[in-house]
TrEMBL record:
The keyword GTP-binding does not apply. This is BZIP domain-containing protein. The lineage of its organism: Eukaryota, Fungi, Fungi incertae sedis, Mucoromycota, Mucoromycotina. GO terms for cellular component: RNA polymerase II transcription regulator complex. Its main location: nucleus. Gene3D superfamilies: 1.20.5.170.
Amino acid sequence: MTKESNTQPAPKVGRHRVYSNEQRKDRNRQAQAAFRDRRSKYTQTLENAIVNFEETIKDLKESNSQTMKRAQVAEERSHHLASQVASLQRLLEMALTDNQRLQAQVALGNDMLPLSPNSDILAPDKMPLTDPMLPLFDTNPIIVSPMLSSLASDDQFDLFNASMSTGESHILKAVL
């Protein structure tokens, strides 16, 4: 056995290259250019998404601001209406008290108008041509009514006149 027989060339392992070094470099350049192009497009897509999200955030902030303003206005209006309801309830209580007092006066003395709507005095042909309720709906801020002049306290009358002069509600006139 000779040494030459042991030194046979070993078979090549691994990938057999079919391309020359120049072809391989060209393919690598193309692959790298395609990668850079894909990365650039992906980056551009992300940048566009960021711009869209920023616009959406801006729109949502504006919408939120407008909604907050509307909610504030609604809350203020709610408080205002609640105060009007409270003052109307006080006026209604005063009117009911005055109504009961007038009914008691009518019951004691028959010289005033009867309370019955079936009375001859309240018949349509005997009704006055002017409505006695018209002065109550006048735009004059200070209203002097016989009903109000007999209230239990001057503070209630002052409250009523103050609410009428500030234009708090035209409904106040209609209640009385």
